[in-house]
Design the sequence.
């Protein structure tokens, strides 16, 4: 009961300040309407609302950071916003950046983007009849989309060059795991394997960093917008491929390695056709093993945030115990039982 | 410690059954959290049923492999440190086997359905005990 009341109070506080933030930018006659809470307890608080100005009405999305410890694996909201502006300009399908929160808004850190209608729920996307065509097109579309993203001049994303994940992706995971203070022999084995089998260095490109089923907003024709850019960094193109193909993100469709949608060959050939750059299956495998480590550490982070009291929820508690499921898939992959 | 009925595990199961009853009546995020809460309680039930046997088995396996008789969390932490320092590279296969059975044990408690049949057959369900 008390949790419910505090969630209501939180909603009221955010909505009141959002009203002020909107009138500061659009004038006294601008108002907000049709407010819908998507989530208050996730990695980001997310509210949908209509910005109403005279007869004009536009659906917008408010996102506010909830996890801001120094060990956070997420880039700061101001960098996310800058990145959204960059990729939006470059023609990557993303929600249009509308305005960034400022200290005067008293809403902590975050931003407002345009609403894009569509579905993100993996089980609906992977099974519902209306997404049959989207499923068919997914591998080709994802390959083309990543080719376009990785083709952006990295100098334009230089503001991401010094983040831990850009400088040393494996080291960044280990530093976080040590910060959370948990011992995970399975992850250490994987890290050791990764250190002893490093691929040769490849050119740095702009990576989405969390390009997977669940973070793509889709319609019946396919991908409409790529969401959740808070893990973006610079690195090897294959890192994005490994993450997309990890077993954890196939949502039960384990025979369809590309996000639960399709086969690797279709995705790799679409990427190569659009970018002119080959995809190396062994290197994707290395990044999948890396991805399991990273996904496990992210789950350890969620339970750390839960236990530290920063933001509590049953879902974050479950993340802690679900770390073992990721470790299991990781070891089964290293044993060669899972592909 | 002797207490009146219901026993510890029965209390957990009672709460889980209540949550399972009301969750379908909830909506949106509350409904999702209801499902997750039930899952969390099912973990505690499995941990109650399996935890001690798993700990005994792991202590024996660790002692056989590393010679350490330290308490379990400390022994796993020491092993994790040794692996990171590269001190276990020579015994790779042996450690893969040891650590895999450790992870299988964790999954038997967290979500036994997740196990491949090669690890799933012998999983006792708490309901059956």
Sequence:
């Amino acid at each position: 009961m008390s949790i419910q009341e505090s969630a209501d109070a939180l909603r009221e506080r955010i909505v009141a300040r959002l009203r002020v933030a909107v009138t500061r930018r659009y004038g006294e006659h601008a108002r907000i309407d049709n407010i819908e809470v998507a989530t208050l307890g996730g990695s980001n608080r997310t509210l949908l609302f209509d910005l109403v100005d005279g007869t004009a009405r536009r659906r917008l999305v408010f996102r506010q950071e909830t996890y801001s410890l120094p060990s956070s694996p997420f880039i700061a909201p101001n960098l996310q916003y800058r990145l959204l502006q960059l990729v939006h300009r470059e023609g990557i399908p993303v929600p249009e950046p509308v305005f960034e929160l400022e200290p005067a808004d008293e809403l902590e850190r975050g931003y407002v983007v345009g609403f894009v209608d569509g579905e993100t729920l993996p089980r609906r996307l992977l099974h519902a009849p209306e997404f049959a065509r989207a499923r068919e097109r997914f591998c080709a579309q994802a390959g083309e989309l990543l080719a376009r993203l990785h083709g952006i001049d990295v100098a334009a994303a230089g503001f991401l060059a010094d983040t831990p994940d850009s400088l040393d992706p494996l080291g960044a995971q280990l530093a976080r795991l040590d910060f959370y203070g948990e011992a995970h022999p399975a992850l250490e084995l994987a890290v050791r394997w990764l250190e002893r089998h490093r691929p040769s260095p490849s050119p740095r490109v702009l990576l989405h960093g969390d390009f997977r089923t669940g973070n793509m907003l889709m319609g019946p024709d396919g991908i409409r917008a790529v969401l959740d850019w808070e893990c973006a960094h610079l690195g090897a193109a294959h890192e994005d491929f490994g993450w997309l193909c990890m077993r954890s993100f196939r949502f039960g469709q384990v025979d369809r390695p590309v996000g639960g949608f399709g086969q690797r060959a279709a995705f790799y050939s679409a990427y190569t056709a659009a970018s002119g750059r080959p995809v190396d299956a062994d290197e994707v495998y290395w990044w999948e093993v890396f991805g399991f480590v990273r996904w496990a550490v992210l789950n350890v982070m969620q339970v750390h945030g839960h236990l530290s009291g920063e933001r509590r929820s049953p879902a974050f508690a479950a993340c802690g115990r679900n770390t073992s499921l990721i470790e299991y898939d990781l070891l089964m992959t290293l044993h060669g039982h899972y592909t | 410690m002797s207490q009146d009925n219901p026993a510890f595990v029965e209390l957990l199961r009672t709460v889980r059954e209540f949550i399972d009853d009301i969750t379908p009546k909830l909506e949106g995020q509350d409904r999702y959290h209801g499902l997750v809460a039930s899952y969390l309680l099912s973990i505690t039930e499995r941990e109650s049923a399996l935890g001690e046997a798993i700990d005994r088995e792991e202590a024996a396996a660790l002692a056989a492999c590393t010679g350490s008789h330290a308490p379990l969390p400390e022994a796993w932490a020491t092993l994790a440190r040794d692996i990171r320092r590269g001190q276990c590279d020579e015994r790779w296969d042996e450690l893969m086997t040891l650590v895999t059975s450790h992870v299988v044990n964790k999954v038997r408690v967290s979500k036994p359905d997740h196990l491949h049949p090669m690890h799933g057959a012998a999983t006792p369900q708490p309901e059956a005990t």
The CA atoms of residues 139 and 337 of chain A lie 24 Å apart. The radius of gyration of chain A is 20 Å. The domain at 122-334 of chain A is CATH 3.90.1200.10 (Aminoglycoside 3'-phosphotransferase; Chain: A, domain 2). Chain A touches chain B through 30 residues (CB under 8 Å).
